[in-house]
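step=encode ok
step=design start
structure_in=
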């Protein structure tokens, strides 16, 4: 699919990987919609950058993706303002790390609700626009934790593994409507989420075959590739320096 002149929604587009994906899609000529939780200023800044740098339309919307009713309302507002949506990137995610034997119910639920149910909520309320337009691209940002498991991340790994099942089911449900759905499984990427990890950079780098953490832009390139493809659906693309081989 040609990305130019399409309308893209990126959840968690206010910073980190989501901001890089938003800017990449804008650089390819898409109008971009940034969905954020609390970081309004950062989201507005990403939008301002996209408008000034690439001359596209860009707008920020505050919405908790875990809230089914709020996402329904968000989809209605965006449809009213933009008419339709062609691209959805489910990138919003959180961690609440801890060993499973000690983990609170709240920590488990918060991560599953945002990372997994949030993606479902977005697909549930936005895919009808793509189906009607007979054209759509959905990219879900999973994680190598969802492929391999990770001690201290039972909730996070479960949410990210669940996202892969969601991705493949949606890919099968929507293929006949020319809507593809793919997942990306990043490894260690330099963002606020991995700040503590990157402080121990040498140890992390030693565990990664390519010898360094990844950059948000490297995940954004993969997202643009999957969105641009007309014949890839239901796949999980690792962007991880080889760590999950
Ligand atoms: P950041 O913590 O830097 O950013 C998270 C983004 O998600 C923010 O924009 C935040 O918005 C948004 N967000 C969080 N909760 C909600 C919510 N309930 N509703 C709407 N938006 C929400 O994360 P990264 O950029 O590092 O990660 C992005 C994605 O990539 C996540 O899904 C993460 O799990 C995944 N990932 C990251 C890896 C890494 O190494 N960094 C590795 C593998 C996967 P706000 O600014 O308003 O808080």
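sequence_out=
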């Amino acid at each position: 699919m040609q990305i130019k002149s399409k309308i893209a929604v990126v959840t968690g587009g206010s910073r980190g990987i989501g901001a890089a994906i938003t800017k990449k899609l804008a650089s390819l000529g898409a109008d971009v919609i940034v969905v954020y939780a609390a970081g309004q200023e950062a989201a507005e800044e990403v939008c301002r950058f996209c408008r000034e740098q690439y001359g596209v339309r860009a707008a920020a919307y505050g919405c908790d993706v875990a809230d089914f009713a709020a996402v329904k309302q968000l989809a209605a507002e965006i449809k009213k303002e933009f008419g339709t949506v062609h691209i959805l990137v489910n990138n919003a995610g959180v961690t609440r790390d801890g060993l499973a034997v000690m983990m609170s119910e709240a920590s488990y639920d918060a991560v599953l609700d945002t990372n997994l149910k949030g993606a479902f909520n977005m697909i549930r309320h936005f895919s009808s626009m793509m189906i009607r337009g007979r054209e759509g691209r959905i990219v879900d940002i999973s994680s190598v934790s969802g492929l391999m498991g990770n001690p201290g991340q039972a909730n996070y790994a479960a949410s990210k593994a669940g996202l892969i099942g969601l991705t493949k089911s949606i890919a099968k449900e929507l293929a006949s409507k020319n809507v593809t759905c793919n997942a990306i499984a990043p490894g260690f990427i330099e963002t606020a989420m991995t700040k503590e990890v990157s402080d121990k950079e040498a140890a992390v780098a030693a565990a990664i075959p390519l010898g360094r953490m990844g950059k948000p832009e490297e995940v954004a390139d993969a997202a643009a590739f999957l969105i641009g493809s007309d014949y890839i659906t239901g796949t999980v693309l690792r962007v991880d320096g080889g760590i999950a081989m």
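step=design ok
step=annotate ok -> The CA atoms of residues 116 and 159 lie 5 Å apart.
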